[in-house]
Amino acid sequence: MIAAALSPTTVNAAYLVAAVLLVLAIKSLASPRHARLGNRLGALGLVIAIVFTLTLEEVDRYAFVLSAIGVGAVVGAVGARTVRMTAMPQMVALLNGTGGGAATAIAIAEFNRIERIDGDFASDTLVAILASTVIGSITLSGSMVAFAKLQELIQGRPIVFPGQQAINASVVVGAIAVAAAAGIAEETTLLLVAAAAALAFGVLFVLPIGGADMPVVIALLNASSGLGAVSTGFVLDNNALIIGGSLVGASGTLLTLLMAKAMNRSVANVLFSAFGQVQAAGGGVRTDDGRTVRATTPEDVAVQLGFARKAIVVPGYGMAVAQAQHDVRQLADVLEQQGVEVKYAIHPVAGRMPGHMNVLLAEANVPYTQLFEMDEINPEFAQADVAIVIGANDVTNPAARSDPGSPIYGMPILDVDKAASVVVLKRSMNPGFAGIDNELYLDPKTTMLFGDAKESVLKLITAVKNS
Fold first, then answer.
1. What stretch of H or E contains 446?
2. Complete edge-to-edge strand list for the sheet that includes strand 421-426
3. Apex CA 377: angle with CA 369 and CA 255, to 5°?
4. Is 258 left (phi over 0), alpha (psi -120 to 50) or beta?
5. Which of 202, 226, 246, 283 is most buried, by the most CB atoms less than 10 A from its CB?
6. How far apart are CA 437 and CA 50, in angstroms?
């Protein structure tokens, strides 16, 4: 057998190499410039871990294992090739869910195997099995609900009902209690009940979280899938799973905290406040102080851009929905040909997952040198002649700075209102994920170009060329 030729020391050395590659991959993914390299390093690390895992003595049904690997590889390759960049958040949610589901399945199978053979559970293995079952089940069902919200199979706004938090607490405490009882009684049926309760909690946990907080939810579910992998590693006594899961759990946790910080909110507030539940009355912008919203035309915007020296593009979820990233890049190219300096302002929580805008613009081959994070670009808005906001709402709302009563007060935003003029491309006056009006739309220097973002950008390109 292959396993006879390799000692445990050799296998663990290979796992160490794989771990180093995964660390380097995460480091590389921090920058769009090195993201592709990061993906390759991560893939190589996982290949090494898988290949050397196949040499373990416990792996003896090679036909079954290789068939499963083949099916997974085909599904993964087809998904990677066919899923649009605009649907990447949904795919990430599904991948988080599959990680949790795998952890649960392995834990239950191993529990049942030990119970049938001799019932001799080592205490550390038993605790790992119970943790893997509960964490994996919550990750699986929570990720499926996140996917359904992102895919608009269910409404993206918070779904709440009376006594929800108390019910959620009762369900999760019940899941943990039944899991503990399963460990004491060494009974598979009880473990299945605990898994079912944990699945129910995952659904109830994500339902009251709105679309504005999906970046945080995805990062948190990513962290929980890593914790599920760690628990599974202890169940199977596999160092690769323990190391890899720890990296995913740690990076996902840090990303969760960073996303919450980017919105100037605590993680608890993100998870339990049902943010975005209440919409502004009438679904429009208040004009009780005499200010009005001014609509514009592509031709008028083209005139503004014709006199501009510097323009800052602010992409948001509306650009993603309209799949307008390639057209935005074309508009920028046209403006640059006319001598306009173009930069892109990226808010950390714009879109529906961390780095969503970076991914979309990278797909459109926007140069990395034109992408600027919020802290870098905010000082430049005051020198910009035109700020072009494409479907970004809450991350440009000045109420975050000026209105202590606003639910987004204190959230760091892009200083779009400091530009000399602002053009907002938007379908309608409906509020964003936070469910509140955007004061930017009432600013005297703001004009609204209503319509589908893709169609509006294409009209802008034509108008600019003809101006």
1. strand 446-450
2. 371-373, 341-346, 310-315, 386-390, 421-426, 446-450
3. 85
4. alpha
5. 202
6. 51
Q: Computed over its alpha carbons, how large is the radius of gyration of the chain?
A: 25
> Cα(161)–Cα(94) distance, rounded to whole angstroms?
26
Say if residues 35 and 362 touch (Cβ distance below 8 Å): yes
Token pair recorded at residue 345: 């302002």
Number of Cα atoms under 13 Å in the Cβ half of residue 52: 23
What pLDDT is stored for residue 274 in this prediction?
60
Q: Has residue 382 got a pLDDT over 90?
A: yes
Backbone angles phi, psi at 404, to 5 degrees: -60, -20
Joined together, the tokens standing for residue 401 give 């700075």
**What DSSP character marks residue 6?**
S
CA dihedral 87→90→96→98, nearest 10 degrees, is -100
- Catalytic site residues? 394
Residue 231: both structure tokens together: 């628990």
Task: Write the CB contacts of 267 (distance below 8 Å, at least 6 apart in sequence).
Answer: 216, 220, 256, 257, 260
Task: Tell me the whole-structure pTM to 2 decimals.
Answer: 0.79
43-52, 233-242, 428-437: least confident range: 428-437
